[in-house]
Amino acid sequence: MFLMHALENGSFRGSLMGISIGTVTKAGTVTATQKIWRNLQALGDIAFAYSYSIILIEIQDTIKSPPAETKTMRKATLLSIVVTTVFYMLCGCMGYAAFGDDAPGNLLTGFGFFNPYWLLDIANLAIVVHLVGAYQVFCQPLFAFVEKWSVKRWPKSELITHEYEARIPCTGATYKLNLFRLVWRTAFVVLTTVISMLMPFFNDVVGILGAFGFWPLTVYFPVEMYIAQKKIRPWSSRWIGLQLLSFTCLVVSLAAACGSMAGVVLDLKSYRPFQSTY
The Amino acid transporter transmembrane domain covers which part of the protein (predicted)? Predict the structure, then answer.
């Protein structure tokens, strides 16, 4: 779709240096300072795309062996990184080539045309399926932690510990229903949905989440685990290299956080609750 739009234009839009200074957007005219903030925010957006490492341990814990979990996870991680990188590079490059400096943060809703509508519907449906599955995977560790803590904290509470059995019609199977689990998980989903609706700055919020989650969970924690497991001596060449890698990613995360926060401050000038900014 983006390739067709680029062909309609007769050429690829945009430039290798990104958005031009002086471009008029809905938030105002882009200045040199705002371009720097935008570039830093983009680093946070990229970091958010690789924040999957926070659930790697949970996934590895459920993998059967043999073969060894490390071999399976190594193949799965490599394949995931390759597919994710190719997909996001295609979306970013083709979207920018099609719309240039006017490229919106949300390519499916902010580009100004809605044909062919069936293709957009399929794309949005695919996003829903992707996010519903990802939401479940990312939330399960939190659900399990809160529910285990609640059982230990109030072991005699029937609301928390008692499970009701409900028969599923036509199957003969039974479903165990826990009222606390039902209420707590429902409230969590409602709360997170309302918060996401109150924060329509998609790119800014993604950049902030990516900046704060990338270094500690994707870089620092795995690096320190690797150093401890391999018993790497302090101040050896490998130890120094790993520490430099960790420090560089920390600087990138801090810069991305600053850029994303600056974007939020700028977007707040035209902010209206429960309304999208595109």
Answer: 22-265
- The reply to whether 143 falls in a domain is yes
pTM as predicted: 0.68
Would you list the DSSP string of 58-122?
Answer: HHHHT---SSPHHHHHHHHHHHHHHHHHHHHHHHHHHHHHHHGGG--SSTTTSSS---SHHHHHH
What mean pLDDT do residues 65-88 have?
82
Q: Domain range holding 224?
A: 2-270
Top-ranked range on mean pLDDT: pick from 77-81, 211-215, 236-240: 236-240
- Name the region of 107 (left: φ>0; alpha: ψ -120 to 50; beta: rest): alpha
Spatial distance between the Cα atoms of 130 and 108, rounded to a whole number of angstroms = 15
- Residues 6 or more apart whose Cβ sits within 8 Å of residue 168: 174, 175
Give the dihedral sign, CA 226/231/233/234.
positive
Q: Is 175 helix (H, G, I), strand (E, B) or coil?
A: strand
245 lies in some domain:
yes
In this structure, is residue 275 part of a structural domain?
A: no
Domain presence at residue 277: no
**The tokens of 180 are what?**
């606390």
CA distance 163 to 147: 13
Domain count, the chain: 1
Phi, psi values for residue 24, rounded to 5°: -90, 120
Residue 67, preceding bond cis, omega within 30 degrees?
A: yes
Q: Which residues pair with 176 in a beta bridge?
A: 165
Q: Which two tokens stand for residue 21?
A: 């200074």
